[in-house]
Amino acid sequence: MSESAPIRVLPQALVARIAAGEVITRPRAVVKELIDNAIDAGATDIVVDSQWGGFQQIDVHDNGSGIRAADTPLALTRHATSKLASLADLPSIATLGFRGEALASIAAVADIEIRTQAHSETVGTKLTSVDGVEACVPSVRRQGTSVTVRRLFDAFPVRREIADRKAESRAIRTLIAQLALSRPDIAFSLDSEGRRLVSTGGGSLRKAFAEINGVDALPFLLDLGPLELRDARVSGIISAPTATAHRSRRDGIVLSVNGRLCGVADIQRAIERAYAEVLPRNRFPHVVLAIAVPPERVDVNIHPAKEQVALLDGKELAERLEAEIRALLGRTAHLIAERHSLALEVGSLPGLRAAEAGTPYGAGEWGARTVEPGSLPRLRVVGHIDDTLIVCESDVGTLLIDQHRAHERVIYERLLEHESVDLPVPVVLALPRSILTMLDTKADDLRGTGWDWEDIGANQLFVRACPTGLAPDDLLPIAERFTSESSHTILAATACHAAIRKRRPLSPDAAVELLEALTRTATPTTCPHGQPIAVNLDRAFLERQFGWR
Ligand code: ADP
Ligand code: MG
């Protein structure tokens, strides 16, 4: 065995480079830090240019306060900051930066040039660091700061080797789009290889949203809040669950806390839960929320790049938000008129038995029957196509309504209310052991939907209660449909199982009853799996199709 090397204290420059490599992990991190500085300097116009995914060159120009000539030489010094003076300030940080580390870290892994001029001064400064050698000379420009970063990671050959320029370009574009949404009052632009990728002019949130995502999604944005919980306040916009307004990535969910773009895990999860039943699997909404809380209720130090924060009372706030989003989505899916409840009783619709046995849901004459408006507009029920689609006229257009999905939605919401019937005599069910084990792990969720049973051994169950509209032996097919862990999935599977199938005859009476029940649901336009229930052949659609205009 060779003798071990002696322990040595590393030279300062090497320490700095190692530490910097952890803060500045990629070009996106450089862009983020430079924009944070511009925002802290009060800029209202921020222009970014990135070449070759930012590996070759990054420029950030701002019209903020600038740095006074006397202070400039300190800008690249580690732990030199104008934002935090003492330990007492730490709990109430209002700026994005405060550690005085970003510029020093960038200078340790790249060449950097800062041109800046403070508004009170007639001459500015140019500070450069090339290969770690600093120089500072007077230079004149208008008020503000421009930072240029070149030769990023030249000293980290592996990092350059694995550099994915396209992925980095995308990440920078996403970052700037998100920053522009979190600070719609600031004008942002991003150019890359001579192309303008993002451009906002500063103004309202909806205006910034349209500048980034196009105007098509605008009609599907709902205003949320302001929602208040003690001294926290949340407001923003969320997308309605229409086919056009959701995306395959989570990057449409943009949260900011006191103006800082960041993730808040509790809130992120609450948003996804609220949308789970109205969007298809693995689709995500547009949600832009600004959260304002007293600075001392935020911990920004849980993540080195400050991109995740934790909130005191975050769980409670998340719950309130989830309920609020559910309510908003329910009230205002795209077809919706005002919601008011009707006194009609549902329940006589033949349930599962008829669906399974193939019994027709009745016959009769189709005519102009109407369904009073609830969460859907007033409907004139005119016909039935393919034993699957109910055709209705309404003030907003001709609706084709999928009977299976409509019924699913009705049953699903009924299950949410935990309506169940106690069986006069418990029913004995014999089930395979694998299913019993499954039932055991899902017992709480199933009991929550109205089931109650007792395991009496020998692979048998005593079923004591079941959800309204279902029969005891529905427990087996429902258990067989479990695909994932969530109670939402169990409810959705139950509803799907119990709902009328496609290609089943339906009487006009049954159709009207189904639609009356549907219009009393909170979310009448999407089934629990997030698929559309109704398609609207509206006037604009028909005009396009027929070329009437
Ligand atoms: P921090 O932002 O944590 O203070 P930085 O290393 O990012 O640390 O910046 C160091 C200092 O340089 C800041 O505190 C600020 O005074 C000054 N500075 C950096 N960028 C700008 C800018 N764009 N406009 C005005 N001042 C800036
Ligand atoms: Mg900073």
Structural class: alpha+beta
Largest sheet: 8 strands, mixed
Number of strands: 25
Compute the number of helices. Answer: 16
Task: Write down the overall mean pLDDT.
Answer: 83
Binned strand content: 25-35%
Q: Which word captures the global form?
A: elongated
**Could you say which small molecules are bound to this protein?**
adenosine-5'-diphosphate, magnesium ion
Distance between the termini: 88 Å
Question: Helicity range of the residues?
Answer: 25-40%
Which stretches are poorly predicted, pLDDT < 50 over at least 5 residues? 332-359
Annotation keywords:
549 residues; single chain; alpha+beta; binds adenosine-5'-diphosphate; 31% helix; binds magnesium ion; 25 strands
How would you describe the overall organization of this protein?
Residues 332-359 have low confidence and may be disordered. The termini are far apart. With 549 residues, the protein is of the alpha+beta class. Strand 7 and strand 8 form a beta hairpin. Helices cover 31% and strands 26% of the residues. It has an eight-stranded mixed beta sheet, with helices on one face. It contains 16 helices and 25 strands. The structure holds adenosine-5'-diphosphate and magnesium ion. Adenosine-5'-diphosphate binds next to helix 2 and helix 3.
Brief account:
With 549 residues, the protein is α+β, with helices and mostly antiparallel strands.
SSE topology:
Layout lengths: L11 H12 L3 H14 L4 E7 L5 E6 L39 H8 L1 E7 L6 E7 L2 E7 L4 E7 L6 H5 L3 H18 L4 E6 L2 E5 L5 H9 L7 E9 L2 E8 L6 E2 L5 E5 L2 E2 L3 H12 L7 E2 L1 E6 L5 E2 L10 E2 L2 H18 L20 H6 L11 E3 L7 E7 L3 E6 L2 E6 H14 L3 E11 L2 H9 L1 H6 L3 E6 L2 E8 L7 H7 L5 H12 L9 H12 L14 E4 L1 H8 L3
Parallel strand pairs: 1-7, 12-15
Antiparallel strand pairs: 1-2, 2-6, 3-4, 3-6, 4-5, 7-8, 9-10, 10-15, 11-14, 12-13, 16-17, 18-19, 19-20, 20-21, 21-25, 22-24, 23-24
Helix pairs in contact: 1-3, 2-5, 5-6, 7-8, 10-14, 10-15, 13-14
The structure holds adenosine-5'-diphosphate and magnesium ion.
The site of magnesium ion (MG) has 5 residues, from helix 2.
